[in-house]
Structure formats: structure tokens, C-alpha cells
Amino acid sequence: MVPAVFVVVATLFVLNTLVEQTADSLVGLLLVLVGIPFYLYWKRQVLAQARQATA
Q1: Residue 13: C-alpha distances to residues 1, 3, 28, 31, 46 (Å)
Q2: Which domain holds residue 14?
Q3: Is the pLDDT of residue 55 over 90?
Q4: Are 48 and 41 in contact (CB under 8 A)?
Q5: How far is CA 34 from CA 16, 24, 28, 30, in A?
Q6: Are 17 and 25 in contact (CB under 8 A)?
Q7: Do 25 and 18 form a contact (C-beta atoms < 8 A)?
Q8: 33 to each of 14, 46, 54, 55, how far by Cα in Å?
Q9: What is the pLDDT of residue 13?
Q10: 55 or 39, which is more confident?
Q11: % helix / strand / coil in the chain, to the nearest 5?
């Protein structure tokens, strides 16, 4: 029950921020979206290194 309440409240905070401070929140959202490809690349590199270490 507690995790569900947390998710609901956190979602409300995010939605409120998107509505009240649209420009600022969109800049933050853009930064997160731009970082996703870098994260995926880094994750793939770490997995490849782990496979080489065990092979």
C-alpha cells in the first residue's frame, strides 16, 4: 500500500511541476531524454567488458 501511495504522490508532484513551470520542466525532461542514449551505450560497454572477463 505504501509504495502505491508514494507513486501516486510523486506522479502528482511531477504533473504539478509540468503545469506550473512548463518551460523549466521541459528543459529537465529534455536533458533526461538526451542522456538515455549515453546510458544505453555505457550499459552495453559494461556488459561487453563483463562477458570478456568471464570468457
Answers
A1: 19, 15, 14, 19, 34
A2: 2-54
A3: no
A4: no
A5: 23, 16, 10, 6
A6: yes
A7: yes
A8: 16, 21, 33, 34
A9: 96
A10: 39
A11: 95, 0, 5
Q: What is the pLDDT of residue 39?
A: 96
As a whole number of angstroms, the distance between CA 11 and CA 5 comes to 10
16 to 4, 20, 35, 40: CA distances (angstroms): 18, 6, 23, 29
Grid coordinates standing for 54? 568471464
Q: pLDDT of 1-53, one tens digit each?
A: 889 999 999 999 999 999 999 999 999 999 999 999 999 999 999 999 999 98
| Total structural domains within the chain | 1
